[in-house]
Design brief:
Number of domains: 4
Family: Belongs to the membrane fusion protein (MFP) (TC 8.A.1) family.
InterPro entries: Beta-barrel_RND_2, RND_pump_MFP
Order of helices and strands: HHEEEEEEHHEEEEEEEEEEEEEEE
Distance between the termini: 101 Å
Shape: elongated
Helix content: 25-40%
Strand content: 35-45%
Protein name: Efflux transporter periplasmic adaptor subunit
GO cellular component, one term: efflux pump complex
Largest sheet: 6 strands, mixed
Pfam family, one: Beta-barrel_RND_2
Structural class: alpha+beta
Number of helices: 4
Radius of gyration: 48 Å
Length: 365
């Protein structure tokens, strides 16, 4: 009777029994997972203690400073060293003139102006000078005999001097109608033609001698400090031709508008290249100085934005040394401001902090 009652009670609470069994299984599973996790994880360090981390290994390369030839490049314009516009010194009609491209020697006649009355004026001046000279000689003989006053002799001398000046002026007026070449060169431009009437100051011809060239350029104020006359230079034209020369001038004061300094260099042009008036690049070779040659990929920036390079010091600690870039291309960078000898980090600098001790693995250059 009692057994029958117990069976009925179990049957009525069957759902509660199954629920309790499932709950027991879940609790057992959670307990096993906690034990497994505890076995896999290391215990936390006690407060106030630190766990040392293994040192980062970096690759370094021993580098030494070497000679560097700084090269300053600026754009400029080539011009003939001897280039002049021949101008009229008197008035007249152009009768003859040199042809374009004609080679002339120093002293050759370039152009002929109409003589007009200049020849007659010269003849009159010569006659007047001869008369005044004869009168002076006669006065000097009379003065030696005491037959003429001193003031009369002075008048004769003054008249002779005026006649000599007038003769000189007449000769110059005739010479000015025949302009001559001031140097050896080529007639490059004709500003007048036969039959034109010119007055003093009018342009007649342009004479050019391109055996020597000069290049004028402007250098920024932050790059002029190392410049001085005598430095070797080269000029590169747009078509690749190159001339070697010397820096001859560096301005003392900067241009008021551009704040740049004018420089001038001179070049021999033995092949008579037609470069006068052309644009060119001026390459100024500055004095040789010690510098390091690095790969541009090794350059980095510090917290202040300054350019530097990662190195390992004598205590095998990572450092970032600031530097100055002298020149940089996609393949190489020349820098200064570093010790003559140093160990430059080529790989692994990003895995350690400044001042951290590192393991060093040297690589060949």
């Amino acid at each position: 009777m009692a057994s029958t009652a117990w069976r009925k009670r179990v049957t009525s609470n069957k759902k509660l029994v199954w629920g309790g069994a499932v709950l027991a299984v879940v609790l057992f599973w959670l307990w096993r997972g906690t034990l497994y996790q505890a076995a896999e994880q290391a215990p936390e360090a006690a407060a106030g203690t630190s766990v040392p981390s293994p040192a980062v290994t970096v690759q370094v390369q021993n580098m030494h400073a070497g000679p560097y030839q700084p090269l300053l490049k600026v754009q400029g314009q080539l011009q003939a060293l001897h280039h002049v516009v021949v101008r009229a010194r008197t008035e007249g009609v152009v009768e003859q003139l040199a042809v374009l491209g004609q080679a002339v020697a120093e002293g050759d006649k370039l152009l002929t102006l109409s003589i007009d009355d200049r020849r007659a004026s010269l003849v009159r001046a010569e006659a007047e000078r001869a008369l005044r000279a004869a009168e002076l000689q006669a006065a000097e003989r009379l003065q030696q005999k005491g037959l003429i006053a001193a003031t009369e002799l002075l008048m004769r001398r003054s008249a002779d001097a005026q006649a000599a000046a007038a003769l000189t002026q007449a000769r110059l007026a005739l010479d000015d109608s025949r302009p001559i070449a001031p140097f050896v060169g080529i007639v490059d431009v004709r500003h007048v033609e036969a039959g034109d009437y010119v007055v003093a100051g009018d342009a007649l011809l342009t004479l050019v001698n391109a055996d020597e060239l000069k290049l004028t350029a402007y250098v920024p104020q932050q790059q002029v400090a190392g410049l001085r006359p005598g430095l070797p230079v080269t000029a590169s034209s747009l078509d690749g031709r190159e001339l070697a020369g010397t820096l001859t001038f560096v301005a003392v004061a900067a241009d008021a508008d551009t704040r740049s300094f004018a420089v001038e260099a001179r070049f021999s042009n033995p092949q008579a290249w037609r470069l006068a008036g052309a644009s060119a690049e001026l390459n100024i070779s500055l004095p040789v100085r010690p510098a390091h040659r690095l790969s541009p990929s090794l350059l980095a920036l510090d917290e202040q934005g300054r350019t530097g390079v990662y190195v390992v010091d004598t205590q095998n600690r990572l450092q970032l040394l600031p530097l100055t870039v002298l020149a940089i291309t996609p393949d190489e960078a020349w820098v200064t401001g570093l010790p003559d000898q140093l160990r430059v980090v080529t790989r692994g600098a990003g895995f350690a902090g400044i001042g951290d001790a590192v393991m060093v693995q040297e690589t060949a250059q």
